[in-house]
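# step 3/5: fold
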Amino acid sequence: MRISIRVRTSLLLVLLVMAFLASRSAANAQKAKPADVQPHAELAVAYNYERSNVPPGGCTCFGLNGGSASFAWPVRPGGFALVADVGVAHSGSITGSGYSLTLSTFTAGTRYLPRLGSSKVQPHGQVLVGFAHSGGTLVSGANTAVSNSGAAFAAQVGGGLDLKLNRRFSIRMAEADYLVTTFKNGVNDHQNNLRLGAGAVFHF
């Protein structure tokens, strides 16, 4: 009878210890896995307006309309992400002469996303480098000095502001980037572009 009582007491103590450890593990798991803090990959699609200048320089400026798609892969929550961006913009009437230009960019780099706690607004800043391709009558006829229209160095520096609607979807309220390209123009081989955009962001 004494052995039975001791066994029952030991089993009760073991059960109490196991229950206590299980409750602590559950609490720790909830603290370590908040859904909104975990990093998420994202795909953004946007409408872009670009402001550029006619070579060989100066500001005989014109606008291009187009779009872009970017993919961001977070390195860690509330920190940096690796980004790849593809953009295409077109203008069919430049300087009133009817010249056309299609500018495509392919860039990749780093994005910084500061942690703002529970705020639904998420800003970011980024630096991307890659190459650009140009086509159209502006580079094939009006400016025959463009011998590297197929591929020229390109870089963009800027940032944006997203409004989070839920775990899967955000609105990119605004993004502004300084985009530089280095197509040959017979003078300084340098083009300054301002790219403005807005669109939608899908989180995975």
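# step 4/5: annotate
The chain has two domains: 1-33, 42-203.
# step 5/5: archive (pending)
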